[in-house]
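Entry 14: structure prediction run for Outer membrane protein assembly factor BamD. Input pasted below.
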Amino acid sequence: MALWKPAALILALTMAVSGTAACSRLGLGGGSPDAPQNLENFTAEQIYKRGEYELENTRRPEDAVRYFSEIERLYPYSEWAKRALIMQAYANHRAKNYEEARGAAQRFIDTYPGDEDAAYAKYLLALSYYDQIDEVGRDQGLTFRALQAMREVIEEYPDTEYARSAILKFDLAFDHLAAKEMEIGRYYLKSGHYTAAINRFRVVVEEFQTTTHTPEALMRLVEAYLSLGLNDEAQTAGAILGHNFQSTPYYQDAYNQLRGRGLTATPQGDSWLTQVYRQVIQGQWL
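Run finished. Output tokens:
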């Protein structure tokens, strides 16, 4: 039996497969929810191919899940059951049944940890978290789990295509966390809760400094510190912004705010921002 590659199969699913006539020859039902019945009379391969057909030719990937699940039930521990298990994960992900996708992917990892397709299963598991964090306001626990799962793919399978994709998605999820801190910080700033806002912007500057949100966080720090009358901190935040992001509109905004108070964007005092500024000058920040 030839080795089966899930990535190759998924690519193939974008092309034409056997078609309705082939499924008719197999004697399997159509795409209705009640189709998987009396499957004991068919081989694992026949049921599997019907699952493939459902993925390619219908808009109900959950129907494919039913076929792949039956293979696992009727032909446990077989090669086809192994193939069907990871395809359960894929089909559930297509259907946006993310918890079920994670469950199938994790069963594959637990049952076949040394299999060459374990990397794909691990990636599917991570992707099932990642695809749920498309909105900034959603539960950030999903983002943390996505980051952890993507990191595992990167560390455990560094030379695979899945690791390369995981690196890109890791960066985007990391940026997402910073976006959430910024969203909350802006709310506090607008509400006049300046200390609470500063705490949020500080997290972005110290923990998410490689994200796209750092310039705005520094500008907001200037605004918040000026509102509290803490001019040294405001000037130091402006100095960091000018050193790294002078070409951005955020620097111009901060510069105008400082200039309006007769201040300059130069480091002052000995705050946490002063420490950050020293690291910038030494080339150890960002």
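Notes: Confidence is low (pLDDT under 50) at residues 1-5, 7-27, 30-36. Will compare against the previous run tomorrow.
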